[in-house]
Amino acid sequence: MASAVVMLLFGVLLQFLPHEVLRQLGATTEGVVPLMLQLAGALYLGFAVMNWMAKAVLIGGIYARPLAIGNLAHFLIGALGLIKFALSNGASPVIWVIAIVYSIFAVLFGIVFMTHPGKKVEWRVESRE
């Protein structure tokens, strides 16, 4: 549900306010760039609807595998791109926050993809003494 809400927020911003988003990022608001942001917003809205509608579906292991892989690919590739951009361009704190959010979702969808939904995931840190 959390990923659906985040994607809904990004989708609405990019779909309906592309010029304002570009101005905040210090980018040009002319040419094809606003259109590309609107198309990205449409993708976010589509993913948001898909994730929201699948909120009651058992996900993990072999269950709803395409949904888990699609989300994992989106967030992992997005996180890597955002982190690379932020490190090489001295990005604003907003970019870093988005990169952190993407990284968290990438890890969580990685866990969902790699574990069976019926098994309890145990988090243990073993100390070497």
Describe this structure in words.
The chain is an all-alpha fold and 129 residues long. It folds into 2 domains: 1-44; 57-129. The chain is 71% helix and 0% strand. The protein has 5 helices and no strands. The protein has helices at 2-16, 18-25, 33-53, 65-89, 93-114. The longest helix has 25 residues, at 65-89. It is flat. The mean pLDDT is 87.
Total domain count: 2
- The helix tally amounts to 5
Sheet/helix structural class: mainly alpha
The percentage helix is over 70%
> Helix and strand succession?
HHHHH
| Cα separation of the termini | 41 Å
Percent range for β-strand residues: under 5%
Question: Ranges with pLDDT <50 over ≥5 residues?
Answer: none
Looking at how many chains there are and whether they match, the oligomeric state comes to: single chain
Query: Strand tally, please?
Result: 0
In round numbers, the mean pLDDT is 87
Record keyword descriptors for this entry.
single chain; 129 residues
Characterize this entry briefly.
The protein has 129 residues and is an all-alpha fold. Helix content is 71%, strand content 0%. The model has no long low-confidence stretch (mean pLDDT 87).
Secondary-structure topology with pairs:
Blueprint: H1 2-16, H2 18-25, H3 33-53, H4 65-89, H5 93-114
Helix pairs in contact: 1-3, 4-5
